Amino acid sequence: MPGLRTGWLWVLASLGLSGCAGAPRHPGTYAQSFDTVTNSCRHNPALCAGEGAVVQVPRAVEVAVLVAEARAMLDEDAKRAVEQVLKECADLARSEILIRQHGGQSPTKEECNEVVEHNARKEPVTQAMKWGTAMHQFALECSRQRLDTVVPGRFSLEPTYRYDRRIPKTTYLTQEQVNALLREGRGAELRGTIVPDVVIHQGDPLQAQSVYDFKFPCSGAGDPPEWRKVSTESGRSQKKLYMEALGLGESQVFRMVPRWGPLP
Predict the structure, then answer these.
(1) What is Dmax (Cα atoms) for the chain?
(2) Cα first-last separation, the chain
(3) What is the pTM of this model?
(4) Are 258 and 216 in contact (CB under 8 A)?
(5) Which are the contacts of 129, defined by CB distance < 8 A and separation ≥ 6?
C-alpha cells in the first residue's frame, strides 16, 4: 500500500529526520525517493520560503497535523484492504459451504427452514442455522490467515467484551479468561457479553477502530440480513450495542455480506 508508506515518509522528510533525497533508505521502506523540495512546495506552498528553499521544520502544532493526516491515510488504506479481505472470505465461505453442498444452487426458503436436528436444550436447529455456523467458521479462519498479512497485530476475531451500561464501562476478556470460566463451570458469567466477529483496533482490543459482523443469507433471495435485535423492549440492535460498548460511530460498524460487501 504505497499511500500508507509515503504519508509517513513525507512527514519524516518535512521534519528533517530523513536526510537528503539521496540518503540511504531504511531496508523496510518502499524503493521510491522522497519528493524534491520543489515538489513538496507544489503540494504545500506554506512550507516554502521561495524557489529552491529548504523546507523549514514545522512548529509542534503543524507536526501534529501532519502526523494526524498520515495516520488518517494509514487507516483509510487499512480499511480498504481489510474490507477487501473480509468480502473475499465471505464470498468464499458461501461458495465452499453452502453452494457446494447444495449442488451449485442456492437453496430455497423452504429448504433453509427445514429442521435438521435439535440442540442440547431441545431447541430446533434449521438447515439455515447449521449452514450459517459452518460459513461463519470458514470465514473467520479465512480472515485469520489473510488479515495477518494486512494489519498484523491490529485485529481480533470473536473477542469477548463485558459491557456495563450503568457506569458505563467495557472490559475485554482474553481467550484464556473465557476458557477458564468455561472450564470452571462458570459459563453463566459470560451471559450478556458481546462477541463481534471481527474488530480492527490499534493493537489493543479496547481501542477499536471498526467492527464487522458476517451475515450469511441462506436462500440468497431478497435483501441482505439485518442486524439482530438484542433487546425487544428498547429495539436496540447489535450495531447500536457495538457502538455504545466500543465508542464507535455509525460509519465504523458494518455487516459483511457475501456479494454485497460491507453494509452499515
Answers:
(1) 79
(2) 25
(3) 0.71
(4) yes
(5) none
Q: In residues, how long is the chain?
A: 264
Name the strands in the sheet holding 208-214, side by side, starting at the edge strand that comes first in the sequence: 155-157, 198-201, 208-214, 253-257, 261-263
For cell 493526516, the residue is 69
- Separation CA 242–CA 263 (nearest Å): 15
The vertex-63 CA angle with 59 and 68, nearest 5°, equals 150
CA atoms within 13 A on the CB side of 11: 20
pLDDT tens digits for range 220-262 = 777 899 999 987 667 789 999 999 999 999 999 999 999 999 9
Residue type for position 241: L
Per-residue pLDDT of 142-176, as tens digits, reads 999 999 999 999 999 999 999 999 999 999 999 99
CB half-sphere exposure, 242, CA atoms < 13 A: 31
Provide the grid cell at 73: 491515510
